[in-house]
Amino acid sequence: MNNERFEAGLEVRRAVLGADYVDNSIRNADDFTISLQHLVTEYCWGEVWTRPGLSKKARSMINIAMLTALNRPHELKLHLRGALRNGVTKDEIKEILLQTAIYCGVPAAVDSFRIAQEIFQSEDA
Protein backbone atom coordinates (compact mmCIF):
# COMPACT_ATOMS: atom_id res chain seq x y z
CA MET A 1 0.00 0.00 0.00
CA ASN A 2 1.26 3.46 -0.93
CA ASN A 3 0.71 5.42 2.30
CA GLU A 4 0.95 8.84 0.61
CA ARG A 5 -1.65 7.90 -2.00
CA PHE A 6 -3.82 6.23 0.67
CA GLU A 7 -3.73 9.37 2.86
CA ALA A 8 -4.56 11.62 -0.11
CA GLY A 9 -7.41 9.28 -1.02
CA LEU A 10 -8.67 9.20 2.54
CA GLU A 11 -8.82 13.00 2.60
CA VAL A 12 -10.79 13.21 -0.66
CA ARG A 13 -13.03 10.28 0.25
CA ARG A 14 -13.93 11.90 3.57
CA ALA A 15 -14.58 15.26 1.90
CA VAL A 16 -16.92 13.76 -0.69
CA LEU A 17 -18.69 10.96 1.20
CA GLY A 18 -18.47 12.38 4.70
CA ALA A 19 -15.91 11.55 7.37
CA ASP A 20 -18.39 9.59 9.51
CA TYR A 21 -19.33 7.26 6.67
CA VAL A 22 -15.73 6.69 5.57
CA ASP A 23 -14.34 6.25 9.07
CA ASN A 24 -17.12 3.79 9.93
CA SER A 25 -16.48 1.82 6.73
CA ILE A 26 -12.82 1.45 7.61
CA ARG A 27 -13.41 0.86 11.33
CA ASN A 28 -16.07 -1.80 10.63
CA ALA A 29 -13.97 -3.62 8.05
CA ASP A 30 -12.87 -7.09 9.05
CA ASP A 31 -10.08 -9.34 7.81
CA PHE A 32 -12.15 -10.12 4.72
CA THR A 33 -13.10 -6.53 3.73
CA ILE A 34 -10.16 -4.39 4.91
CA SER A 35 -8.21 -5.07 1.71
CA LEU A 36 -11.13 -3.68 -0.31
CA GLN A 37 -11.22 -0.56 1.87
CA HIS A 38 -7.51 -0.02 1.24
CA LEU A 39 -7.87 -0.65 -2.50
CA VAL A 40 -10.80 1.74 -2.89
CA THR A 41 -9.19 4.45 -0.79
CA GLU A 42 -5.78 4.25 -2.43
CA TYR A 43 -6.70 3.76 -6.09
CA CYS A 44 -10.21 5.11 -6.55
CA TRP A 45 -9.85 8.12 -4.28
CA GLY A 46 -6.07 8.57 -4.02
CA GLU A 47 -5.12 7.90 -7.63
CA VAL A 48 -8.13 8.95 -9.70
CA TRP A 49 -10.13 11.48 -7.66
CA THR A 50 -6.96 13.48 -6.91
CA ARG A 51 -6.04 13.93 -10.58
CA PRO A 52 -6.19 17.52 -11.85
CA GLY A 53 -8.00 16.79 -15.15
CA LEU A 54 -11.56 17.02 -13.79
CA SER A 55 -13.11 18.89 -10.91
CA LYS A 56 -14.72 16.97 -8.06
CA LYS A 57 -18.05 18.37 -9.27
CA ALA A 58 -17.52 16.90 -12.75
CA ARG A 59 -16.44 13.55 -11.28
CA SER A 60 -19.59 13.51 -9.14
CA MET A 61 -21.77 14.22 -12.16
CA ILE A 62 -20.15 11.39 -14.12
CA ASN A 63 -20.59 9.01 -11.17
CA ILE A 64 -24.31 9.77 -10.92
CA ALA A 65 -24.75 8.80 -14.56
CA MET A 66 -22.57 5.68 -14.32
CA LEU A 67 -24.17 4.43 -11.11
CA THR A 68 -27.60 4.89 -12.67
CA ALA A 69 -26.48 2.92 -15.73
CA LEU A 70 -25.05 0.17 -13.54
CA ASN A 71 -28.10 0.09 -11.23
CA ARG A 72 -26.07 0.53 -8.05
CA PRO A 73 -28.54 2.22 -5.66
CA HIS A 74 -26.37 2.00 -2.52
CA GLU A 75 -23.43 3.71 -4.22
CA LEU A 76 -25.77 6.17 -5.94
CA LYS A 77 -27.08 7.32 -2.56
CA LEU A 78 -23.53 7.95 -1.35
CA HIS A 79 -22.53 9.76 -4.48
CA LEU A 80 -25.67 11.90 -4.61
CA ARG A 81 -24.78 13.21 -1.16
CA GLY A 82 -21.21 13.66 -2.32
CA ALA A 83 -22.37 15.48 -5.45
CA LEU A 84 -24.30 17.95 -3.33
CA ARG A 85 -21.14 18.50 -1.22
CA ASN A 86 -19.18 19.02 -4.44
CA GLY A 87 -21.53 21.75 -5.65
CA VAL A 88 -23.80 19.80 -7.99
CA THR A 89 -27.24 21.38 -7.81
CA LYS A 90 -30.55 19.57 -7.66
CA ASP A 91 -31.37 20.96 -11.12
CA GLU A 92 -28.11 19.58 -12.49
CA ILE A 93 -28.87 16.20 -10.93
CA LYS A 94 -32.30 16.30 -12.54
CA GLU A 95 -30.73 16.98 -15.94
CA ILE A 96 -28.18 14.20 -15.49
CA LEU A 97 -30.95 11.76 -14.63
CA LEU A 98 -33.08 12.88 -17.59
CA GLN A 99 -30.05 12.22 -19.81
CA THR A 100 -29.69 8.76 -18.30
CA ALA A 101 -33.34 8.03 -19.13
CA ILE A 102 -32.47 8.32 -22.80
CA TYR A 103 -29.14 6.48 -22.78
CA CYS A 104 -29.56 4.02 -19.89
CA GLY A 105 -33.28 3.40 -19.98
CA VAL A 106 -36.33 4.88 -18.33
CA PRO A 107 -36.55 2.25 -15.54
CA ALA A 108 -32.99 3.04 -14.43
CA ALA A 109 -33.72 6.77 -14.41
CA VAL A 110 -37.01 6.29 -12.55
CA ASP A 111 -35.20 4.42 -9.78
CA SER A 112 -32.48 7.06 -9.63
CA PHE A 113 -35.02 9.90 -9.51
CA ARG A 114 -36.71 8.11 -6.60
CA ILE A 115 -33.39 7.71 -4.80
CA ALA A 116 -32.43 11.34 -5.46
CA GLN A 117 -35.75 12.52 -4.09
CA GLU A 118 -35.16 10.52 -0.89
CA ILE A 119 -31.68 12.03 -0.53
CA PHE A 120 -32.94 15.55 -1.13
CA GLN A 121 -35.66 15.10 1.48
CA SER A 122 -33.23 13.74 4.05
CA GLU A 123 -30.68 16.51 3.33
CA ASP A 124 -33.38 19.19 3.64
CA ALA A 125 -34.67 17.77 6.93
UniProtKB/TrEMBL annotation:
Record domain Carboxymuconolactone decarboxylase-like: where: 36-118
One Gene Ontology molecular-function label: peroxiredoxin activity
Classification via SUPFAM superfamilies: AhpD-like (SSF69118)
InterPro entries to which the protein is assigned, alphabetical: 4CMD/NDH-1_regulator, AhpD-like, CMD-like, Decarb_PcaC
Protein name according to UniProt: 4-carboxymuconolactone decarboxylase
